Amino acid sequence: MTGPRIRVIWNPAAGTKGGVRANHVDEGQIRALMARARVGSELVPTASSAEARAQAGDAVSRGYDLVVAAGGDGTVSTVAEALLGTETTLGILPLGSVMNIVRSLGIPREPELAADAIATGRVARIDVGDAAGRPFFEAGSVGMNAAMFREAHRIDAGDWSSPIRTMWAALRYRPARISIDLEDRRLRTRALMITVSNGPYAGAGLTVAPGARLDDGRFDVRVFRRFSKVRLLRHLASIAFGRYRYAPEVDTYRSRFVRVESAHPLPARADSRDLGTTPVEFVTRPRALRVVVPGSRAEPAR
Description:
The protein is built from eight helices and 20 strands. A hairpin with a 4-residue loop joins strand 10 and strand 11. The strands form five sheets. It has a six-stranded antiparallel beta sheet. A six-stranded antiparallel beta sheet has the order 16-15-12-9-18-19. 44% of the residues are buried.
């Protein structure tokens, strides 16, 4: 009887922001984590997202039971995208600086504890969002936050003017009249910011939707409609890095489908991907991804 087929896809550059290494894991450390996670010895280092996607797709086509993404949120998303709708399960060894997906799944951010979770965990089936025909795992956004994230994301490419550009994007942002179509109602607002969340966290670990669940088949749609710009910026700072602060100015709705239109084009994003401008649609893909999470094993992980 042969054992499970497992491939570990490793991004050696994980944890780098703006060309600066926040943490470093070498091959010896990765192999030690693999032994702790009991995932065998097949390790594939990758130099690009295209290579990681190809390796994950190859594992699916060959009938692998488990593919472990060892890297940051970008690596995890790239590998997960190739596994959607298949029986191949995703495992995660978190090596990045933010790790929103890991936070949302309750996986420990410490690589050693995450390895233990792979060894002893269970398989969960989670929802995935879809925008413009591409999946997203964290949140979609429309409005001032999308304009800010567009600039903030440039720091990954080494653009150290990004923080200044981000603040400038916030200051010059002008809201518009917005229509939000949900499955059971239409909303009209001039909100500064709208988030369409699959999980609780987005961006720099912002707790934009603390009640969002990855397995309920619906987005948490959060409408930030009674904020001044200064108040909204303060609120975003207060919920960064996994923190949560109650904000009575935010209205929350739940829906499988969201369409946002506006009187003039507003910026839109899904995770780290630029969607251009409104109109934009978001839909859920329920239970589209198998992933190993901590807990008693009700279903074999591999």
